[in-house]
Amino acid sequence: MDKEKAQFDRMLETMMTFVDGVNESHTGGVRFGSKTPLYPAEIHTVVAIGRNQGISLTGLAEELGITKPTLSERIRKLVNKGFVEKRTNPKDRKAVTLWLTPDGITADHHHAQHHEKMYAGFCRHFGEDAPQKITTFTRTFEELSRLNKDACEHA
Question: Is the pTM of this model over 0.85?
């Protein structure tokens, strides 16, 4: 049991080293084809809007799995930075729809290129094992996310 606990601790340390490295690479944000840096949550919001031009705040909050107040603050920042615009919904004058500006479209495009480079590097690193690693890592991160959610709910 002690050996298993030590392996668990090593796993946690390794995972945190990975997370810290990802966070460090995003310190100050990333410029995706513009002068203005975006943080991971911001660029992934831009990407989601790009996939669903004209989406409502409610629909986007559901897609991203975040609360409407959290999303509203993020959208406010993205509007101020010039990546997103809000338009009145012609079917419901009280509601707004979300659209990418030209800078938002550029950021979305550069982010897609960024992911292509990451994928190419992943495939180079893991070679013929890359497809299996993708499956294994996806399942592992999904399980860890559920574990973390359960732990937070029972804390």
Answer: no
